[in-house]
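1st attempt posting a full record on here, be nice pls
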Amino acid sequence: MSLVELEIRDGVAIITLNDPDRRNVLTVPMCEAILVGVATAEADQSVHVLVVTGAGSAFCAGADLKDLEAASRGDNAAVQTVYRSFMAVANSILPTIAAVNGPAVGAGFNLALACDMRVASHAARFDSRFLKIGLHPGGGHSWLLLRALGWSRAARMLLAGQTLDGEAAQAAGLADMLCDAGSLPDTALALATPMVRTPRELLLRTKASLRLAEASTHADTFTHETAEQTWSLAQPAFAALLKR
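the predicted structure (as tokens):
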């Protein structure tokens, strides 16, 4: 059995964490497979969108306690591999969607937060968990949480231990869409459809511009977007519009 399944369907790459008996805990072999899956999806010119989900009842239960124990003795190699796996998703050139089918806990919550968009089933549960087990958050969790929720909500989840189910996550803006568990794959694919229909290079360049805008000034973003829009004016998609 593969710990990570990669399916490419109609322009969408679906990465499924596939260790349901262990609630898709982020072991080193699984994280290495995630890295391969992201790289494979990015290299495939037919792929416009990357979806990440979990098999079974959990999205991802977080890091392996054995790896955290090793880190407590000074051996950080496994934990660093966990970080690299969800940062590969966070840094992906592709638009990314987390299809959260169940609990997303600790580093598993990081994996969901690393995605650009999140679709949640009613069974989803988002739980920072770090302080509850005596750990400081890791992997940039506080930055990801602040970006997704703002200060007050992030503080409640991280400092006060609040968890959000699927309905509460949608109300808080953490989940973009809410659905029944059985319709989660179709809901994620429906969210991906407009992006699949967009020319791939235009889509990827626009995501890159969005990322630049987040860390830049209005003036710098204005200059960058002006150049990118000029590029797009000469592309076939816009030329086709003029011929209608």
